[in-house]
Automatic annotation (TrEMBL), chains A, B:
Pfam families: HMGL-like. It comes from the Bacteria. The lineage of its organism: Bacteria, Pseudomonadati, Bacteroidota, Flavobacteriia, Flavobacteriales. Coiled coil: none annotated. It comes from Flavobacterium lacus. This is 4-hydroxy 2-oxovalerate aldolase. One of its GO terms (biological process) is carboxylic acid metabolic process. Residues 1-251 form the Pyruvate carboxyltransferase domain.
Length: 512, 512
């Protein structure tokens, strides 16, 4: 039985395939003293749009460096969806003499195309691994199953990939029997995911049932909920007397990745559990978990909709705003709203025509005494949050605006809002068609055509640690503001200091 | 099949059974909308030495408050080792009408004594749950097994507890068959731990094999590696169509505990995996993981020693210091050593007789050019760390001092140190007999009898977040310094600002 560690390859989903050099050196060096047979160190790929890091393209000098450091067999993987047989010669020539095995990540629906790719790889002299995804769906894929015998003589390993992380030990057994009935002599492999914390038990069952190779990653680092943890698999096999393990290099290595885990937070959580249990793609969940305004709650709701094939709970009326001849005050969730509350309240008391648009309802309860018209942008979990914030003690006529239909993240409207909830027709001030607090707020403002817009509480993150998620949101919001200001002929000013590229004035210069 | 959530009871191992009131309110309220049948909210206990919080003693007003909020059955647990039948009347009278079930945490070796306790509880009208620990050892415990039939008529539930978190699904099946062969009519329960990420699969197997009740905790919060996660069990059963779950209250609840998890970090890790795989107590690991100077590496080593019954790898010579008539410079790992390096080097260059004691080897490489005699305190993983720091480039004659024999955390001595490694005879300047950098350093200093001690790099944690572990270390070190200064007639001065209660002078006042 062989073990393939694919920490850099599968972990790259979290770091966009960039890793600190010292960490990679530690990893390669430690693996020399550990009972792994293969190290999958990344992808090779034709140029794709968008940024992907060092270990997605694996330039020659990186492969050379890794080869010079390791005593193990090295592996790269190709994404079958992007790579055609005609790319193979250029893509893999630099790998000759450095890389031992080339794996192919394959959608079973494209299995015919994948066979041609595998042949092109095999001809160049590499060991070939078939990594076929979505194993939970195979038994209903007759076309794919009938093509299986063609891998004989071509595949050094044929992997079953539990892409959703939702299979149980009995499913692993059943799939192995199914595959063996078509290709009894091809060595099998298993690549598990840990959404349901079943990756270890599934991997052990795969070994018992005759798989000759299994994948694992240090600390389970890998797409979505991640993989079976190499250290857990080692510990289990070692305690059963089946594997010699030196825990010294292992625990040093685990220590190195543990700090990275605290910043990227891979591993399972409730949304990944639900996606695993219902065989829903990890990719969506990974995007959603990355957005701080999608609570687990709203993600679960979206996943349940996907599982049931429901597009959304219900469609609402759209709203038509009269062109208002007043200013809008756009209020975000930043702390300046609290610091300068008195000035904002004063502005609203003395200008009762100003229309308030709450991008976030965070500070809304502070404004229950003002008589200005109030709009709330209900994206993701904001309806529940709004309800919690007001805690039954509602303002008189809140008007709630939801993203355009269909809404992935559900349609929750707080009880007291009643009929005052509407949805947008579309976003047409930007190419960035995403549901977010700021998208809704700016679309509402565009349609209102106010005389001008004041902004409060869009501070950015000036203090403390700013994490990856916050940075991405910052960039996204800034893009939205920029698109709005470029395209719409509406004056736009922040009343307080802000890190966003919005013109600034001082609230104290405009209140009486 | 019934579900018992014991988040507050088992999670209390991390918070010492104190929980923020708002969190408990959220928990109780959310559980009203979730398919749990019982909530175990804590212990009841006679007064024990040491501090244990609100949910360890559960005073009457707390039980009344919980009862007024919940629609579920409430449960408390008694630690059989602390409680005798004669305590029961006083201990449980306040529970009448508030608590539905009383569980007993039982060591199978004390099963006879536990039966008497159970009778005293049963007489008072409570449902009685037997929670019998160490299920992995039962098949060899004939005395215990022969007493089993006596629980008939006494136990409402008889629980198998996987105390070590090391059982596999097949062990669960086997133990259930074993127990059923003695008490076929008693409803069985299962309480799993998650060291090997097998808690879910074990719990599902327990249900399949006929257990009528299973335990779970939100986010798995519980002793050591924790329990099966309530949200994971719900998701699995819900996806199988066996349980209706409202994911709204569930995900809100999970969100609340997730932030607490980030601060206490319950869940499995390499040391818990090893302790689970080898059926070693979680309690030791939990203590060790709490100390920041015990790396996973040294904990694993200690666990391997325990598993093999090895007390320590080897015993060293003890060292006899001549009374030195020079000062000692005690160097810790704080940043002032780097900030003020020039002054320290100057002090050592101009006073070559000063003996350096490195409590931490963190900064030792900065001192390779000085000719002063250098001692290193090798506790836990420090030998490996020292080796990493010097990276082959060793100073000439480092002398390493290890804790007294036997050493729980192993005896690793860097290669180049050769025979210059010794162990202490004992700690005799303090009642706090613990292995730590500071303990060793102070014991060495006591035995050297220097003219006086200068301290550098014992800064405390002035900047940034200071976590629970760091605070405990701070308190512990301060206690050590205090014991030393009170009992030993040696002048002791920090050369830099420090949060420890050590007399301070300035290095700049003593260098030329």
């Amino acid at each position: 039985m062989k073990i393939l560690d694919c920490t850099l390859r599968d972990g790259g989903y979290y770091t966009n395939w960039d890793f600190n050099r010292a960490l990679v050196d530690t990893y390669i060096k430690a693996c020399n003293d550990l009972p792994v047979d293969y190290l999958e160190v990344g992808y090779r790929s034709i140029p794709l749009e968008g940024y992907y890091g060092e270990y997605f393209y694996l330039p020659l000098y990186v492969m050379q460096r890794l080869k010079s450091q390791t005593t193990k067999k090295l592996v790269v993987i190709l994404n079958e969806k992007d790579i055609r047989p005609e790319h193979v010669y250029d893509l893999l020539t630099p790998c000759v003499g450095l890389i031992d095995m080339v794996r192919l990540a394959i959608d079973p629906e494209q299995f015919g195309r994948a066979l041609a790719l595998a042949e092109a790889v095999k001809i160049m002299g590499f060991e070939v691994g078939f990594n076929v995804m979505y194993m939970s769906t195979w038994k209903n894929q007759k076309n794919f199953l009938e093509l299986l015998p063609k891998v004989q003589g071509l595949a050094d390993y044929f992997y079953m990939v539990d892409s959703y992380g939702g299979v149980y030990p009995e499913d692993v057994k059943e799939t192995i029997q199914l595959v063996k009935s078509y290709i009894p002599a091809v060595p099998l492999g298993f690549h598990g995911h840990n959404n349901m914390e079943l990756a270890l038990v599934n991997t052990l069952v795969a070994i018992e049932e005759g798989c000759e190779i299994v994948d694992a990653t240090i600390t389970g680092m890998g797409r979505g909920a991640g993989n079976v943890k190499t250290e857990l698999l080692f510990t289990a096999l070692n305690a059963k007397g089946k594997l010699e393990v030196d825990f010294n290099p292992l625990s040093k290595l685990v220590d190195s990745f543990t700090s990275l885990q605290k910043s990227y937070e891979w591993g399972t959580n409730l949304p990944y559990m639900v996606s695993g249990a219902h065989s829903l793609p990890q990719k969506d969940v990974m995007d959603w978990v990355g957005k701080r305004f999608y609570s687990f709650n709203s993600i679960i709701r979206a996943l349940q909709n996907q599982a049931k094939g429901v597009k959304d709970n219900k469609s609402l009326d759209t709203v038509r705003f009269n062109n208002i001849s007043y200013p809008v005050l756009l209020i975000g969730g930043g702390p300046t709203v609290i610091q300068h509350l008195e000035s904002i309240i004063n502005l609203l008391y003395t200008n009762k025509d100003i229309v308030i648009v709450f991008a976030s309802s965070k500070h809304a309860k502070l404004f229950t005494t003002v008589q200005n018209k109030q709009y709330f942008c209900l994206v993701g979990n904001e309806g529940h949050r709004m309800e919690d914030i007001f805690d039954g003690d509602f303002i008189v006529n809140p008007i709630c605006i939801l993203p355009p239909y269909p809404r992935l993240m559900g349609t929750y409207i707080p009880g007291n809002v009643g009929n005052n909830a509407f949805e947008l027709q579309e976003y047409n001030f930007t190419e960035l068609k995403i549901d977010s607090h700021t998208s809704i707020a700016l679309q509402v403002i565009k349609e209102m055509k106010p005389t001008n817009v004041f902004v409060a509480g869009y501070d950015g993150y000036k203090e403390g640690l700013i994490d990856q998620k916050a940075q991405e949101l910052l960039v996204e919001n800034n893009q939205l503001f920029d698109d709005f200001i470029q395209n719409e002929n509406i004056r736009f000013e922040s009343l307080f200091d802000t890190v966003y590229k919005i013109p600034q004035i001082s609230i104290y210069s405009i209140i009486k």
